[in-house]
Every structure is written in structure tokens, then in C-alpha cells.
Amino acid sequence: MPNTSRELWRVVEPYHQVAYRSPEATAAYTTLGLTTPPHQYFANRLAVMGPVGTTTASAVLFGFNPTYVATAVPEIWKIAEPQRICDARRDAAVACLGRIVPGIETLPLTVELAHIARDLVLRLDYAGSPIGAACFDQAYPDSPDAGLWHSCTVLREHRGDSHWRATAAHGIDPVECHILHAADGAMPEDLLQRVSGWDDVAWADAKHRLARRGIIAINEDRLVLTDDGRTTKRAIEAATDSHADRAIEAVGAARVLELRERMRPTITRIMDANVIGAWKMREALWRDE
User: H-helix or E-strand containing 224?
Assistant: First the structure.
């Protein structure tokens, strides 16, 4: 049986990403005065929460070095108001999707998929999901293409919140989570350190903590999950998956898998358009040939 929550994630993640790394998104943020990658990234993720401070931003994003977050937050709110950023990212996502799939706004399929996705977000439990809840509280767009993107973004952020909650519950801190990810072979260690902003000392200390706890082994500078590490990783992923289970059960697993299946051609086009940044390195997760 397919893991329905995981299969759903495989389409909502790249669909959500078009509002960050696409040419349309970069142009929209630059027009607002947000010209650096940290400004654009943190504005994209946090604007739905309003003008939050560095501590709140670091807490809800979990995996970033607070010092790195402070290079953008709260300065970004002096450059552009949060609601203007939210409006710009929605419009950029719609423009990008319209370029990738011409006529997407009038396709009957878009209307059908937007309806399924909307049913899902209406049934999610938002307790303990700050970014997911803040995304949900944004006004639901009138057009089905914007509505589908909006729902995918809510689903993505809800899952992200669930993942960080599960990570913390299993004793993994904001630096260690990236080490665990690298040891699993998901993404390169140097890339994860660079994008999360942790310095060499904090990174090395995290590796040694996990090694002392028997979660990873360091073999000739290569990180490897131990049996305990694999157990921890599986438990975190299972807890992440389970948080959406009640919504999936209410909507019906068959309808959710239909959403995933019928979105596959668009996800392939998103992959071909190369607009998802570092996620491109994990293309096999999102693309079905």
C-alpha cells in the first residue's frame, strides 16, 4: 500500500517551490526591494506570519542558525510589508505556473484538483503548526490555479511544521537535523550547512554529539547512519506522515492519490523548467518517468 501522506508530499513540495526560485518569484521580490537570497527566502516563508522577530522566525523555521536568520529578519519588514510579500509570491506562483502550463487557469482539471486540495486543507489539524496555520489564514484565492497553489503551500508548510515537531520530540536539535539528513544520503553535507547558516564549530559539535549517542558514524569524513540512526530517522518520518492522516482519511485516500496521480504531468513540467533550486538535486523524489 502506498504511503498516502508521502505521496501527497511528492507533488505539493515542488508545486509550492515555484513561488521562491522561479524567475517570476525572483523578479517579484526584487521589485519589492528584497534583492538578496536570504531576504527573498525568509520573506517567502515568513510573511504569512506577519512582522515576526528573529527569535520567533528561528523557532518556527527550526533548522536555521538564528545568527543567519538575523541577517534578514526583522530588516525585511522595513523593506516590504508582509501582506505585499504574500500577494507578490502568490502572483509570481500563478505567473510561473501559467508559463509552464499555458492555460492552466481555465483547465477543468485544475478546478477538480483545486477542489480536492481545498478539502484537505479544510480538514487538517493546525494545532502545533504555526506556518501551516498562518498560510491557511491567508484569503483563499478566487481563481482555481491560484487556489491549487495556495492549498499545496498550506499542505507543504503543515507537513514541514509536523516534521520539525517530530524531530524535536525525538531529541534532534536544529543543527543535528541536517547532519542526520546528510548521513541518510538525502543531500550533500556541505550544501546543507551552507543553506542553513551554521558555522563550522556548531556543525562539528553536532556531528560529535550524534556520534557519541550512536546515531551516526564518521568514516573517513563520510557520515553514515547507524542502526539507531536509521530507527530514529524512520520514527521521525512516520510521525511526520501521521499528522495528516486524519485529514486524508476524511477526504479519502483514493481521492488524495488521485490528486497526486493527476498532478504528475505538471510536476514533470516543473522539473523540466528547472525552477525549484536545491530541490533539483532530489529530482528522483518528484519526477515519475
Answer: strand 222-225
Element holding 226 (H helix, E strand): none
User: Per residue in 80-92, pLDDT tens?
Assistant: 999 999 999 999 9
Q: How far apart are CA 88 and CA 150, in angstroms?
A: 13
Residues 226-279 pLDDT 10s:
999 999 999 999 999 999 898 999 999 999 999 999 999 999 999 888 887 766
What is the C-alpha to C-alpha distance for residues 189 and 206, in angstroms, rounded to an integer? 12
How far, CA to CA in Å, does 11 sit from each of 123, 164, 193?
19, 20, 26
Pure H helices in 18-143 = 23-31, 37-46, 54-61, 66-69, 75-79, 82-100, 108-123, 130-137
CB-count burial class (<10 Å; 0-12, 13-18, 19+) for 40: buried
Report, as ranges of residue numbers, the positions in the chain whose pLDDT lies below 70. Answer: 1, 278-289
**Residues whose CB is less than 8 angstroms from the CB of residue 257 and which lie 6 or more positions away in sequence, other chains included:** 2, 4, 7
Ordered structural domains, the chain, with CATH: 4-169+244-286 (no CATH), 176-235 (1.10.10)
Q: What is the pTM of this model?
A: 0.95
189: nearest Cα among 221, 155, 213: 221
